[in-house]
Structures are given as structure tokens and as C-alpha cells.
Fold:
Amino acid sequence: MGFSGHLVFARSERPLLEAPVFDGIRQELKDTAHPWRPRPGGWQTLQFDHGLWENDHLSALVAWTGAPACVADVSDSDIALVTGLGTDDQRWQAWLNLDNAAALLAEEPDDLDDLSLWVGTPEFDAAVRRKRAELDVDVPADAERALAWAAAAGTPATARQRPRLEELLRSRETFAENLFSALLDELGFPQVVQPSPEPSGTAS
Structure:
């Protein structure tokens, strides 16, 4: 079973959990939050279980950090809806794992009584293809807005990267979390610094 929850990405010299927007979360729930390895420059990713993040938290987080931020709503590691917000209140969204998102968002027949009887039918496959085509149309605009958001955050993101970013938004991964990390890399944020290997012991 994959991860379901939220991945919060923002810049702060203090741990993100210290943001006032999280003051209402009980400590035992805060203890379930899992920080990813930080990126240089104060960029942090915080992994929350479902139920610990509200939509209006993003605006409050941007106001507290004074920097753009984004959040990925992940469902069972299959899909993620990324929402970014800048200090100018400009918002963007993009789906990760479009094929899975299309299967989830495909329009169901009005007379459908049992979803399990519809999934896998030719009608279901056709509905998924239609939704996938609809989502695909939005990819160039999603990529352009994401790049503008990243540039406002101080990354070296430029329009020349848009084809690669569009390719990533159309790509498929087993774990949507990996796509989210790759998205941040492609948007020009400093990459995670991996820990140095432990020195091997010397025989005495």
C-alpha cells in the first residue's frame, strides 16, 4: 500500500512545523510528520498524513515564510495533485501520473450502480482516454505557470526548460512521490545533498 497524504515544500530557516499555521495540530499528530532531507537554501519538504493539511494552509505558509511554496496531495502513491502559490498570490496546479489521474477522474455513467462492473470495460477505457486527452491539453500551461512560480522563488528556471518539464508532467512513475521530487529538481531548486558515506574502519 502506498503513501496517502501531503508533501509540503517551502523555504524557512526554521523547521516548517514551527509555522503558526500548524499550531492547532495536536503534538501526537505532529510527531507523525516526516521531514525529507532538506535542500540547500532552506528549502524543506514535510510529509504529512491525510487529515493534517487544509487548503487554506498554503496561503498562511507563504505569508509566514515570505517565499513561494507548494503542496502535493498524494493518493496511495498513484497520483498527486500539486498546487503552488507565490508571494503574489498567483496559483498553479498540475497532476502527476496523468494516466492514473485520468482513470480516477473519468466521467462515470449516470446510471452506474457498481463501479467495479464498469472498470475495465471498453466504455471505461474510452472515458479514461477522453479524460487523459483533456488533462494533456493543460500540460503546457501548467508547465509555464510552474516555471514562473519557480523563477519567482529564485531558481534558474527558464522557458527553455518547458519541453523537459512537460515531458515530466506526462511521465509515469510507480511512486508519485518520486515524480514530485523530480519536479522540484526540474524546476531548478537545489538538489538534495546526500550524506557522505561512513568512513570504513581501519584494522588495528
Q: What stands out?
A: The chain has one domain: 5-186.
